[in-house]
Structure formats: structure tokens, C-alpha cells
Amino acid sequence: MVGDFPPAVKTTGPGAGPLFLSREKVYSSGMNEFNDDQNCFVCGKKNTAGLQLEFCRNDASGCTEARVSFPVQFQGWRSTVHGGLLATVLDETLIKSAADAGHKCVTAEITVKYRKPAMTGEPCLVSARTLETRGRIVFAEGRICDAQGQVLAQATGKLFKV
User: CB under 8 Å to 117, separation ≥6 — which residues?
Assistant: First the structure.
């Protein structure tokens, strides 16, 4: 049947049981109990396969920033960073900017516009800032620029306070 997926349980052999924690188990304490286990693909220090970005607040610009250089294994076309990775980094940066403004959020919606190709191995700066808060929604914008300051991709997002 379309839409049916096999159960996420290994039923035989060593390690039989759930392959990952259920949503109910992870969020049994409620969404306000998010805990950072340092395995985030973008910023987690324990994730050796991830980017391990270090974010900081730029008080002069009011933005949250990180420097990033995408390794070749994150390419789409030859020597070009896969667009999904650019979107992922922008998404995390929007969330970090909200956190710097005192809001713990998850992404409700993100729109990414790609302007120029990002090249693997070349340094980039990703930055974001919050624009407005309406109730439980935080609006933010961000961008990734190359070393010359050219905008490679930009994003707007609606973030949901948790």
C-alpha cells in the first residue's frame, strides 16, 4: 500500500528492538524539554560526520554568524555544494539567531533562494537575524556569502517557540 513503511524495529538477531527512539519517548516530557545531546549535524561537537559549526553573535550587525567550508563529500554537481546542505545550514542559523534573541524555537517554515553556486572547500560566512515576533512565531532571515561578500543563498523563516 502506498505510504506504508516497514516498522522501525529489528525483530531478529543481535540488537533486536527499536532502531531509534520513538517520538513519544523523545518528547515524553513535552516540547519544552529539548535537550542538546551535541549530535546536531550542523553544530554538534559529538557528530564527527557533521560540520561542527561554532556560532557567535556579531553585536555590530545584530546577526548570529558562523564560518563554514563545505567538504567535497557535501557536493551535488562537481565542486558545487548540494543545495540541501545550504538550506540545512541556513535553517540552523535562523534557529540560533532566535536563541540569541532569547527564544527557543523549531522551524515551522523556511524559504530558500539560491543566488550563486557555493563551491566546496571555499570559505563562507552564514549569518541570520530575527526580524519580528508575533505571539509564538518568530520571523527571521539569513544568508550565506562567499569570501568576497557575494550572496550565495538566502532564507526567510517562520520559527515556532517551544
Answer: 77, 80, 81, 152
By residue range, what is the domain housing residue 110? 54-161
Q: Among 26-30, 73-77, 94-98, 102-106, name the one with the lowest average pLDDT.
A: 26-30
- pLDDT over 70 (residue 40): yes
Give the count of domains, the chain: 1
C-alpha cell at 157: 523563516
> Is the residue at 22 inside a domain?
no
Q: Does the residue 34 lie in any domain?
A: no
The answer to whether the Cα torsion of 83, 87, 88, 89 is positive or negative is positive
Q: pLDDT-derived band of residue 95, with 50, 70 and 90 as boundaries?
A: very high
Q: Which residue has the cell 539560491?
A: 114
Residue 108 falls inside a structural domain? yes
Q: Residue 80 — φ and ψ, nearest 5°?
A: -115, 130
